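Entry 14. Structure prediction run on the chain below.
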Amino acid sequence: MPTARDVLLDAAHRALVARPWHDVRMVDVAAAAGVSRQTLYNEFGSKDGLARALVRRAADSYLAGVERALGSPGGTGDRLAATAAWTVRAARGNALVRALLTGCWGERLPHPAASVRRSASAVPAQRRADAGSPTSAELLGKVRDRAVAALDEGRPPHDRAALAMVCELALRLALSYALVPPPAGVAGDGVPLVRDVVDRLPDVAA
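Output returned:
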């Protein structure tokens, strides 16, 4: 059963899809979630706190999808292709994920640099959100490092530097597909191109 926090974040995300963040009102989020405005403030402290939690959840959801893709069956090329496909879907389907990955925050979105007011009495989840979201470079670095660790474990020895380079290249190719739709007749998620890149590099193709 969803927690009050999850219900509130779902309501906040629906509001953000419908209108710019600066037009989203806390009272409307609380009403859409079916809770009191005081419950919303108790959970997040302020609209800035709600924004940080919303952005943090988007980052966590994207990273969880990365873990699933990296754990999918197949070799290096298959799992990197699955990670690329997930990155494209996530960036196209969630403006917050796209902004986290690219660093391009439009006027419609809550900006992660909003002022942080930490409180010793805040709930653990809020203290974690108050720590801030990763920059685009940090997020890509996290995904690259997780990919290297997952793909190198239990496999024939890789050149780890070459593997890290290919993992980052796969991510950046995926982002280019997410941001600029490919021409008609070309696969829209970058998977064939990622597979081709991996297959051409024998040190990481296993």
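Residues 149 and 160 are 9 Å apart (CA to CA).
Filed with the rest of this week's runs.
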